[in-house]
Specification:
- The chain is mostly beta strands.
- It has two domains: 3-224, Lipopolysaccharide (LPS) transport protein A like domain (lipopolysaccharide transport protein A fold); 327-796, no CATH class.
- Helices cover 5% and strands 52% of the residues.
- The chain contains seven helices and 50 strands.
- The strands form four sheets. The chain has a 26-stranded antiparallel barrel. Strands 6-7-10-11-9-8 form a six-stranded antiparallel barrel. It has a two-stranded antiparallel ribbon with strand order 29-30.
- The longest helix is centred in the first third of the chain and has 15 residues, at 3-17.
- The radius of gyration is 36 Å and the shape is globular.
- The model is unreliable at 1-24, 677-685 and 832-840 (pLDDT under 50).
């Protein structure tokens, strides 16, 4: 080894040995690397050149040249330095101080990044600036760092922007002085906000706003004020709210909002238009205590000062939430909340046309545990009726109660069920089944209290081709009298047992047969003077399926014919006092003893009443490619084998080609002889019981073009409401003719994304009118009548430091082209990540 290298090695060894004693106070020793070194024996100082590395624990200092005093750990760097400590890097023209202690830096740039490893590997200031995404950049004339990691800055500038090619940041804050605690906060004295308005073709920052003092969080989850939120609907008018973000440990946080809704003009309130005005607040809690456990809950409150005729006022509250958790490898828990304090809440606080016309909300809880061949479930569901008129508001005979508890609406639960999955037994047979005990009824009372017509609070029925809610003014003396009448539902506890025995077997290479036997029995205990009852039924069936396929290079074409047959008995035992409680029950055409005025809605049932024999034939063709399924098409016909008449015909299609996907289905019951829909809504508008389709083009660059149509004929589709045991049910359900279509796009334009969606009927239909206070107001809409327009704009800064989003919505009832009735939402997001526990 040459003499100069031996000398340099000795000097470095001597310089590195001294900090060992300095580290006795708890600090780790300093590791020194340099190609060249010279030693000043009198001053106890080493001059390191040729690219210097000093390391103490996680702290790394790099410089082209440095003067280092081993006895004190002091270092002095000129000509540029990079000091890296975890996710923080200090790049300075000159640096003086102790490694891991107090230091001073001239003209520093401080980077807080996402990738500590990339920062530690940076060897030049340019590499440090490009090392991953920077969450924050601080620049100053001078910086003083302390041993505990704090930094004091003079004439500082702060920004989260990572602009390409070193361009001016979209925004930055300039301040006389700053007290910085990395990962915690920064306190700024007399800060001024500067922006670069590139949309005005200005490429240099300009000042726009000054503050006497500003507290800025520097971590993803730091307690502090967020940017104000602006939104507006035709009902609430302009609403301004200020959010406060609060960190609750490592696995939980909260956001608290306070604001004011300015409401409608006073003349609109006096005219009875839906109106909301007053102080608003909200509290949202989020948590993620474990890897497979997360949730959120939100409470909204507004003190409504407006009292428009037929509307709500005073305290307006809503509670929503979701919690999902894995309890071990076999147990899952899921809770969903969607509760409102009055039946008009959704109408008054939602701008979307479809959600505003919702007739109920649902909350549910499910706890399930699965084994190899069985599943055990405990569940409950709360169905909360809603209305966009005053039909469910509190009155002399009806009280909405807390979250709808005063209404005689039926809820499901608690319920306990055990499911046996298809399990092999002797001789190749498979056995499966379900046992359940469930409660059905309102929170208080024993009946739906609907009266002789069977239409009570929360019920809907078809009138003049329109799905219409219950009208409290209906002359039915039996409703809301607290006494049971034939045709009303009774609160009940049901015990149910179902079992199935099947024997699947193959015939040759292509044919598969599945014969089966199934039986069900239920027992009901009612809460009223009605005695308990029990009933049972059985059915037999078989399915046959064959698959013929052939390959054409990388493509595979398959043809799959299918046959299905079912024969069922009538109900043996007692008849329910009203229609069934869910799809597991069997109910007759009319409840026993119901009056002639009865027209209550029939819910789904397990099968049609009486004996039935049904068949289905279908043919599927499928084309598969190297990446999966390309085209699937199936056409079929349902048959009523007892009468020899055709029932519903159907066809479905699903196709994909690169970025283009399409799917659709049509169902036709024109061949079937279906009983007329009661209450003056015959199947006269169309025999197409369902027409559904959607097409979408979505490219990798973000281009998104989409269109969809869903049309349902009066009474609904027989196969869609066939129940658990039947292939179809020709009885019309409580559905009016309805249709909804949408067309829209999302186009990326550089850093911006522009979206536009239009909602229209897609065919001529009867619909509810725009009078929000009337349940009888109806209108006819043409196929292309524009019901709602929604425009959106999102700007993702090229500097990756903010995201601006805006949405504007107009609908026909609120004035399709009247900007005074427009709903909008505007937000600016400066955070790089999501709150803890965020669920999608």
């Amino acid at each position: 080894m040459p003499f100069i290298e031996l000398a340099a090695a000795a000097l470095l060894a001597q310089a590195a040995a001294a900090p060992t004693s300095a580290g006795e106070g708890g600090q780790p020793p300093i590791h020194v690397e340099a190609p060249e070194a010279s030693w000043d024996v009198a001053g106890g100082e080493a001059l390191l050149t040729g690219g210097v590395l000093l390391r103490r624990g996680s702290l790394v200092l790099r410089a082209p040249m440095a003067r280092y005093t081993p006895s004190t750990g002091r270092v002095e760097v000129t000509g540029g330095a990079i000091l890296v400590d975890g996710a923080r890097a200090v790049v300075a023209k000159a640096l003086r101080g102790e490694v891991g202690g107090v230091y001073e830096a001239d003209e520093p740039a401080i980077f807080f990044g996402d990738d500590p490893a990339a920062l530690a590997a940076a060897r030049t200031p340019e590499e440090a600036a490009r090392a991953g995404r920077r969450r924050l950049t601080l620049r100053a004339a001078r910086a003083t760092g302390s041993a505990d990691g704090g930094i004091a800055l003079d004439d500082a500038r702060a920004t989260m922007c990572n602009c390409p090619a070193g361009g001016s940041p979209s925004w930055e804050i300039r301040t006389r002085s700053a007290d910085v605690r990395p990962g915690e906060r920064a306190i700024l004295s007399w800060p001024v906000l500067w922006i670069t308005p590139r949309f005005l073709f200005v490429e240099r920052p300009v000042p726009i706003l000054a503050f006497p003092w500003l507290w800025v969080p520097l971590g993803e989850r730091q307690t502090g004020l967020l940017l104000p939120e602006l939104r507006s609907t035709g009902t609430t008018g302009l609403t301004i709210s200020e959010p406060l973000f609060v960190t609750l440990g490592r696995s939980a946080d909260a956001t608290l909002w306070a604001g004011w809704a300015f409401g409608r003009p006073r003349a609109d309130v006096r005219a009875g238009k839906p109106a909301v005005r007053g102080f608003s607040s909200a509290l949202e809690l989020r948590w993620a205590p474990a890897e497979r456990s997360a949730g959120r809950i939100r409470l909204d409150y507004l003190h409504d000062l407006d009292a428009e005729p037929g509307g709500a006022h005073g305290a307006r509250v809503a509670l929503s939430g979701l919690h999902a958790q894995r309890l071990g490898d076999q147990t899952d828990l899921r809770l969903e909340l969607d509760l409102v304090g009055d039946p008009l809440y959704v109408r008054d606080f939602t701008s979307d046309l479809l959600r505003r016309d919702a007739t109920y909300s649902r909350s549910a809880a499910l706890l399930s545990r699965r084994g190899d061949d069985a599943v055990v479930e405990a569940s409950a569901a709360w169905l909360l009726p809603l209305a966009r008129d005053g039909s469910l508001a509190s009155g002399d005979r009806l009280s909405f109660g807390t979250f709808g508890s005063g209404l005689p609406a039926f809820h499901r639960g608690p319920a306990l069920a055990a499911l046996l999955l298809p399990t092999p037994v002797a001789g190749g047979l498979l056995v499966s089944g379900r046992a359940e005990v469930a409660r059905f009824g309102p929170l208080s009372g024993t009946t739906s209290d609907a009266g002789a017509d069977g239409i009570g609070p929360g019920d809907r029925f078809v009138r003049a081709g329109v799905l219409t809610p219950w009208d409290p003014a209906t002359p039915d003396p039996g409703q809301l009298d607290g006494r049971f009448e034939p045709g009303e539902r009774l609160a009940a506890t049901r015990a149910m047992l179902r079992a199935e025995l099947s024997a699947p077997f193959a015939v040759g290479r292509w044919l598969r047969l599945i014969p089966f036997l199934r039986g069900g029995a239920s027992a009901y205990a009612f809460d009223s003077s009605e005695g308990p009852l029990a009933n049972a039924w059985g059915l037999a069936g078989a399915g046959a399926e064959a698959e013929l396929s052939r390959r054409f290079g990388a493509l595979r074409h398959a043809i799959v014919p299918r046959l299905a047959w079912r024969i069922g008995s009538g109900v043996i035992g007692g008849s329910l006092p009203a229609f069934g409680y869910d799809e597991w029950d069997r109910g007759g055409e009319r409840p026993p003893g119901a009056a002639a005025t009865f027209m209550g809605p029939r819910l789904l049932s397990a099968a049609p009443p009486g004996r039935f024999q049904q068949g289905r034939a279908s043919l599927e063709t499928r084309l598969d490619g190297p990446s999966g399924e390309l085209v699937r098409f199936e056409a079929g016909q349902d048959l009523d084998l007892r009468t020899g008449e055709p029932a519903e015909s159907f066809a479905t299609l699903r196709a994909s080609a690169g970025a283009l996907t399409a799917e659709g289905a049509v169902r036709y019951a024109g061949f079937a002889t279906r009983p007329p829909v009661p209450a003056g809504a015959p199947l006269s508008l169309d025999d197409w019981t369902e027409v559904r389709g959607a097409v979408r083009y979505k490219s990798r660059r973000g281009h998104d073009l989409h269109a969809a149509l869903r049309s349902v004929g009066a009474g609904g589709s027989p196969s869609e409401q066939g129940g658990a045991d039947a292939l179809f049910d020709l009885r019309p359900g409580p559905l009016a003719t309805s249709s909804q279509a949408s067309v829209g796009f999302k186009l990326p334009l550089g850093p911006a994304t522009v979206g536009y969606d239009v909602l229209f009927p897609g065919r001529e239909v009867a619909a509810r009118g725009c009078d929000a206070t009337s349940s009888s107001d109806t209108r006819r809409l043409s196929a292309l009548h524009v019901q709602q327009q929604t425009a959106s704009f999102v700007w993702d800064s090229p500097c990756r430091c903010f995201r601006l989003s805006a949405q504007v919505r107009l609908n026909d009832c609120d004035g399709l082209f009247d900007p005074r009735e427009a709903s909008f939402h505007f937000a600016i997001d400066l955070s790089p990540g999501e709150p803890v526990g965020a669920l999608k």
